[in-house]
């Protein structure tokens, strides 16, 4: 049997290096910047007022006090957005708003609260040293200076800066385009009444959501019955179909274990895909490789087991980290040590990933294992916020022991 870390390496090796694309800045949220971005302009682009008030010469109001105000004629009004270049004559004031360009000759702004707010003449009740309330050109960033580094995940503040710099497009790592394909003749879509023996398809929805959450573009393909010919035909048509957006990675679920009717295994054995047993619980049957379609297009494929908890845990353990890396995103989720609240057993020789609920009280992390180890318990999975990572050589975890937990959902 392959160890978890060996299989992680094999899966990771299937991924291609990140692809750089230039996208409209509005589509760059959550993507990773592929190149350093130098500021094309200076910010602020011109000296401007930091306050609503009056642009003056400091020396003209140096004697102003509450008791003995200085009164100046208001020679101009400068709202933000005025684009003509004004000059302040000595002994005058210009009413000016926050963000409006400073007139030449002015060296300070006296805020409106220190004046009577006049529009023809203004009485000023305090002095303001030169430089007061002026935002200098270039005080935020200078033209040519690196504004954003390659590798930065683009979130609101970074996109705000890019917008302020007038950047309409940004070079980012392209999202990996994932095709999620479910197999099983027992599966039916939501909205269809179930016949005896049928179940609603769930892995497709779950894995598609997981891939999108990881930053990928994911398309869920309607599931296929356990028929080798149809499975291959569907796979080929999705890969080779001319009007599809293209496929960088295929994730299947089901049809890889030891029984009969294992459609994925039967269809892809000898087609560049290896089917192996991995020493883990859940998720022992795994497969991966590069499948070449009828049209001659090679695509990495990861074939996850069908049991929903196995599929989800396998995605977390094998797929998510290299999928994130392939988009330049941080690969690893946070792991923290936590004290276990109850005793449970673990299969010797297999690394176990149990579902759990993490709570942190007064800085003390505690984890309650949720549900049995069996891999069909989706309801337990849905209430978990961590996976307990139990090493292969452990056969019993006692209440109070400390284990590493993989944080699926930040508290
Ligand atoms: P398999 O690996 O195909 O033998 O499937 C193992 C178990 O997972 C069976 O109980 C299947 O019904 C179930 N299963 C497989 N695929 C799905 C799916 N897409 N949605 C829900 N359950 C599934
Ligand atoms: Mg099946």
Fold and architecture overview:
With 411 residues, this protein is α/β, with parallel strands linked by helices. The chain has 4 domains: 4-19 and 174-325, MoaB/Mog-like domain (Molybdenum Cofactor Biosythetic Enzyme, Chain A, 3-Layer(aba) Sandwich), CATH 3.40.980; 20-43 and 139-173, Molybdopterin biosynthesis moea protein, domain 2 (Alpha-Beta Complex); 48-135, Molybdopterin biosynthesis moeA protein, domain 3, CATH 2.170.190; 335-407, MoeA, C-terminal, domain IV (Beta-clip, Beta Barrel), CATH 2.40.340. The protein contains 7 helices and 27 strands. Strands 15-12-16-20-19-17 form a 6-stranded mixed β-sheet, with helices on both faces. It has a 5-stranded mixed β-sheet with strand order 7-4-6-5-8, with no helix packed on it. The longest helix has 18 residues, at 308-325. The radius of gyration is 32 Å and the shape is elongated.
Keywords:
411 residues; alpha/beta; Molybdenum Cofactor Biosythetic Enzyme, Chain A; Molybdopterin biosynthesis moea protein, domain 2; Molybdopterin biosynthesis moeA protein, domain 3; 4 domains; 6-stranded mixed sheet; 5-stranded mixed sheet; 27 strands; binds adenosine monophosphate; binds magnesium ion
